[in-house]
Every structure is written in structure tokens, then in C-alpha cells.
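Example record for the data management plan.
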Amino acid sequence: MFSRSKPSSRSKPVEPVPQPSPPPSVPEFDADWSSPASEAPVPVTTGSKAAPSVLSSDLTITGNVASSGDIQVEGTIEGDIRAAHLTVGETATVRGEVVAEEVVVHGRVVGRLRGLKVRLSASARVEGDIIHKTIAIESGAHFEGSVQRQDDPIGNQPNARLTAPREFFREPRDESATSEAAAE
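Corresponding structural encoding:
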């Protein structure tokens, strides 16, 4: 059945089968899984600008939001926002101070806007003061407040803090209690 024969000159030579590359090494983590035990994590850089952080329309945040990158708001934020570039979407509502190098408003902002470049689109609804270096307001935008030009509207001080307008922290007045007291 099987026989040993001489290799013939007509048969094709057998090519070696490529070996699969070894799997990448997986670092061992500390007991709390916070970082690899052997080395510090290395950030991955692609050389391109990072995608903006998107706060979707079903999200409501109560508190301040700060980012060194870009933020796109589609939901509701009740607090201050500080970012490099901020886009307030058509479905978004922001109640608080907005501070960014570039601010584009398509939705609603109740509070002060501070930015080097501020743009209110036709669908924008802003109730508050705008402090800017350059501003563009499209036809159809609704704006109630004052506009002031400054060379450094975002106040690039090293320890600049986010602050909300005072009225944001006030307790809502109970109108029924005051009308009852007046009736007595």
C-alpha cells in the first residue's frame, strides 16, 4: 500500500507553511486592575484631532462640565461648561456659564457665554450676556442680553475657575406662600 520511492524530478518542491505570529503580550495588572504592574500605560496617538465628547439628547447633567477637548451637547446641562470648542445642538439646553475658545449655538443657552469666537445659528435661543472677541449672529437667532467685546474674553488665567450665575443657585420662590401671607 505505502511504498518508499525516490523523489522524482517532476514533483514540485514542498514550500514551508508560514507560522502564525505569536499573540501580543498582555500586561499583568496590579491587584486593583488600575494599571499594568510592569510598566506605565502608553497613550495611543494617531496624529489627528480627537473626536468631540458627545452628550446625547437623552442625557441630563446637573453640575459643571470641563474638558480640554471639544464637547457637543445635545441634551440638558444645568451647570457651567468649559471646553476648547463647544457646540450646543438644536435639541440642547444649557443653564449656566459657557466658556470656550469657540462656541457654536444651535440650541438654547440660559446664562453667560464667553468665547474667542461665538456663533449663534438661526435656530439659537440665548438668554444672557455674550463676552467675545469675534461674534456672528445669523438671521433668525433669538438673543436677549448684552454683547461685549474683549481681547481675552475667556480669561486664560492659570487658575481660572468655573462659576455659575448667582440666580442658578437661588432656591425657587414659593409663590403660594407669599400670596397666603399677603392675604392674612
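Summary line stored alongside the record: Confidence is low (pLDDT under 50) at residues 29-47, 157-170, 177-184.
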